[in-house]
Specification:
Pdiesterase2; RibonucZ/Hydroxyglut_hydro; about 270 residues; 8 helices; EC 3.1.4.17; Metallo-B-lactamas; alpha/beta
């Protein structure tokens, strides 16, 4: 299973694209601005979209992508998300004011997009080229949100994505039961902005350390940091590097922390 990083920034700037991951060419996880780097053919090959929540940096490209590929597809694009996320999309995006209602175009019997509610703890099987098992994981954010664990139907190792979240014990309770191959976790703000991170329910390096301390004993896998704000990325990276150095100084087994980059391809 391959995970292509289309966007992993917490905001936009030159070479910074917001959250979106393409799995095996047919499954998109979040639809941030990174989707715009796909070709027409690549967009048209996507059959399913998993959304973590309704915030703009995670859904910005969805209406535009639908407009782009509608005439190239023979079946609706399936969007899977929490019920509250779907309701927000219908009320505030696909409302014939901000954007056409593609769930009723060209007709309600044959629309360009269909919406499919998911619930925390639910498991899905999606994927045409290679079936994938998806589990919906809990997240703690300012709007209803979730994360995802995805694995190839023939494999056991999971690609786990936290989504946007603050401290989240139920997430770790479940993740520690999985065979994790790669974890992608957000750290949106530096410690200097800790109060803002807490208010907006995002992680900072200090709270990231609290979260990573909940990884079960004997569990060791690459941990990729995502969703850093462009203006603070270097500061966040420096603070997380300092955490790693502190763990080594205390002879605590350090975590394998890496920096996620757009255009990277992660293989499980």
């Amino acid at each position: 299973m391959q995970v292509r990083v289309l966007g992993c920034s917490g905001a936009i700037a030159k070479d910074c694209r917001t959250t979106s991951f393409l799995i095996d060419n047919d499954l998109l996880v979040d639809a941030g601005t990174g989707v715009g780097d796909l070709t027409l053919e690549e967009m048209a090959s996507i059959d399913d979209v998993l959304l973590t929540h309704s915030h703009l940096d995670h859904i910005a490209a969805l209406p535009l992508m639908l407009d782009t590929v509608a005439s190239l597809r023979t079946k609706p694009l399936r969007v899977h998300a929490l019920r509250a996320t779907i309701e927000a999309l219908r009320a505030h995006v696909f409302n014939n004011v901000i954007w056409p209602d593609f769930a009723s175009i060209p007709s309600t019997d044959s629309p360009f997009v269909t919406f499919h509610p998911v619930t925390i703890g639910e498991t899905l099987q999606l994927g045409s080229s290679q079936p994938k098992h998806i589990e919906v994981l809990p997240a703690v954010h300012t709007v209803p949100a979730c994360g995802y664990a995805v694995r190839c139907a023939k494999g056991t190792r999971h690609w786990v994505f936290s989504g946007d979240t603050e401290r989240n014990e139920p997430f770790w309770n479940r993740v520690n039961q999985l065979d994790v191959g790669i974890l992608v976790i957000e750290t949106a703000f530096s410690n200097r902005e800790q109060a803002l991170a807490r208010r907006s329910l995002h992680l900072s390096p200090t709270t990231l350390a609290h979260e990573l301390a909940q990884i079960g004993p004997g569990k060791n896998y690459p941990i990729y940091i995502t969703h850093t704000k462009p203006a603070e990325t270097e500061e966040i990276m420096s603070q997380i590097d300092a955490l790693s150095a502190g763990w080594k100084a205390k002879k605590v087994d350090p975590r394998d922390i890496r920096w996620l980059k757009a255009a990277a391809v992660l293989t499980l």
